[in-house]
Design brief:
- There is one protein chain.
- By secondary structure, this protein is an alpha+beta fold.
- The chain has two helices and seven strands; from the N terminus they run H-E-E-E-E-H-E-E-E.
- Helices cover 19% and strands 48% of the residues.
- Strands 1, 2, 3, 4, 5, 6 and 7 form a seven-stranded mixed beta sheet that branches.
- Strand 5 and strand 6 form a beta hairpin.
- The protein is elongated, with a radius of gyration of 19 Å.
């Protein structure tokens, strides 16, 4: 079974990297990367899950390979993500550019994650990392689909709706 939160943050990291943006899920303070330009560090601040239908049930379909019935379930997940934007001292413009790229990603690409808000905080020196840092908050919604075959008791095949398989 997938780790939902890992998959969601990994998907956002992939989308940023496809745009040429250096992005990480997390980093340890004792292993900070050497930055030449700006980079985004992503994580989940909080999440809320709710039924996408009555008891998560969306209906059933026939598995073409086996001819058996497959039940479909789903849930809606509201996420508040953080994106800490880092850049070497003196490179405020690199953070500005990175924020603009993230804004483009969030409001033009709708690939699995549906963004509703992107908020930017102040850019300031971060004494813990030695870089400039700007905290951003992203609000988004994801729809998770799962299936269960007649013979199985467990939900399987979790996928993020909207992601090309």
């Amino acid at each position: 079974m997938m780790n939902l939160f890992t998959e969601l943050t990994d998907r956002l990291v992939e989308q940023l990297e496809e745009m040429g943006i250096a992005a990480l899920r997390a980093w340890e303070r004792d292993r900070l990367p050497r930055l030449e330009g700006a980079a985004a560090v992503l994580g989940i601040r909080q999440s809320r899950s709710r039924d996408a239908a009555l008891w998560h049930y969306l209906g059933n379909s026939v598995d073409e390979a086996t001819g058996g019935t497959v039940e479909r379930y789903g849930k809606q997940v509201a996420l508040e993500l953080y994106a800490d934007l880092y850049a070497p001292m003196g490179q405020v413009e690199a953070i500005d550019d990175l924020f603009c790229q993230m804004e483009t990603l969030c409001f033009t690409r709708q690939d699995g994650l549906r963004f509703s808000q992107l908020q930017r905080g102040e850019t300031a020196a971060d004494s813990a990392s030695g870089y400039l840092k700007c905290r951003c908050t992203l609000l988004c919604t994801a729809y998770i689909l799962a299936s269960r075959r007649e013979e199985d008791a467990m939900l399987t095949d979790f996928i993020l709706k909207g992601v090309v398989q």
